């Protein structure tokens, strides 16, 4: 439980990086990876 905020924070930073890469590269793979990351962040926050 104590690690959960760190994990969520790290995933949010990763999401920011993916958004940057998505705009720079316009690669569909990054869009799908980002969607999965956002869903994971949401589910972890519900715990």
Automatic annotation (TrEMBL):
GO-annotated molecular function: interleukin-6 receptor binding
Subunit and partners: Component of a hexamer of two molecules each of IL6, IL6R and IL6ST; first binds to IL6R to associate with the signaling subunit IL6ST. Interacts with IL6R (via the N-terminal ectodomain); this interaction may be affected by IL6R-binding with SORL1, hence decreasing IL6 cis signaling. Interacts with SORL1 (via the N-terminal ectodomain); this interaction leads to IL6 internalization and lysosomal degradation. May form a trimeric complex with the soluble SORL1 ectodomain and soluble IL6R receptor; this interaction might stabilize circulating IL6, hence promoting IL6 trans signaling.
Functional summary from the UniProt entry: Cytokine with a wide variety of biological functions in immunity, tissue regeneration, and metabolism. Binds to IL6R, then the complex associates to the signaling subunit IL6ST/gp130 to trigger the intracellular IL6-signaling pathway. The interaction with the membrane-bound IL6R and IL6ST stimulates 'classic signaling', whereas the binding of IL6 and soluble IL6R to IL6ST stimulates 'trans-signaling'. Alternatively, 'cluster signaling' occurs when membrane-bound IL6:IL6R complexes on transmitter cells activate IL6ST receptors on neighboring receiver cells.
Superkingdom of origin: Eukaryota
Biological process terms in GO annotation: acute-phase response; cell differentiation; positive regulation of multicellular organismal process
GO terms under cellular component: extracellular space
Name the record gives this protein: Interleukin-6
A Pfam family recorded for this sequence: IL6
Record key words, sorted: Acute phase
């Amino acid at each position: 439980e104590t690690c959960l905020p760190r994990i969520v924070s790290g995933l949010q930073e990763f999401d920011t990086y993916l958004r940057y890469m998505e705009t720079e590269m316009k690669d569909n793979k990054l869009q799908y990876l980002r969607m999965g990351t956002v869903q994971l962040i949401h589910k972890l926050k519900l715990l």
